[in-house]
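quick one, 308 residues, struct below
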Amino acid sequence: MDVLNQFKKASRIQVIPVMLIPVALGALGAYVWTGCFHIGLFLLTLIGSGAAHLFSNMVNDLWDYKNGTDTEAQEHVDAISTNSGFLTKGIWSIRKFEIVTWMLFGIAALCGIILSLISGWWALLFGALGGLIAYFYVAPPVRFGYRGKGYSEIAILLSFGILPVMGAFYVQTSTMDLRALLLSLPIGLLTTLILFNHHFLHWQADRQAGKRTLVVVWGEKRALTFSRALLLLACLSLVACVLAGALPPYAIIALLTVIPLYLVYGRLKDSNRSEAYLPLMGASTMTTMRCGGVLILSLLVQGIIQAF
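---
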């Protein structure tokens, strides 16, 4: 059990729903729109995408540690570290951390290969793109997360929205559908918002370590404006999904889940200490989980209605 608990902490498994939710949405979209749903393919997609997400978490920790970013965050007075701490605190050796990281990649790759043999080569392409983005988010020479030009935000939108939703839909149907792309936007933008808001927790340490996130480049005031804009875009994309028929009309109640997050923004100033952003981070995460849950439930209800 100690080994399992260590793995859960090292991989930060508690955040895995942000990957499993879009996969579930894509598969449910396939069922509601086309009547296709294969439980075996769905479970294999969940395993593969979940392993890919945990790989992403660990490879990010690995390269942030090697780049000195996590060490800077741990030592900076006004910074809240968001890594697992297994490398910065010496709980695991780099070698052990690397072995577990690449084992997760192997599981994800194997699932992708099997799914591509069953559903078509696009399944492997979706998985491969996700894997490349996950690795090069902080790894040289690309390092999306260090460039501060919006590359990292686009990478997150792709990795936790467009690719898993469209990929899960394709696995079930072996076809593409514009509705899957639309369905990916609300959950993808909300997950992007989580990753964007977490930069506020240690943006000064990131600046000293040379990690040029948009918060570092723009400063708190402008970055908070962009953060609010992302939330608005997520809401508008949800409305667009309903209007386009990608979601049933009653899915609009998911907009209620953003109210707690909206209220948190009202309590923030133009400049804040790192601790002040913890409620924002928590509310962003809860909004994404709750909104995703409502959307999943809406599609399930729609599927049941159509079945009768």
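The radius of gyration is 19 Å.
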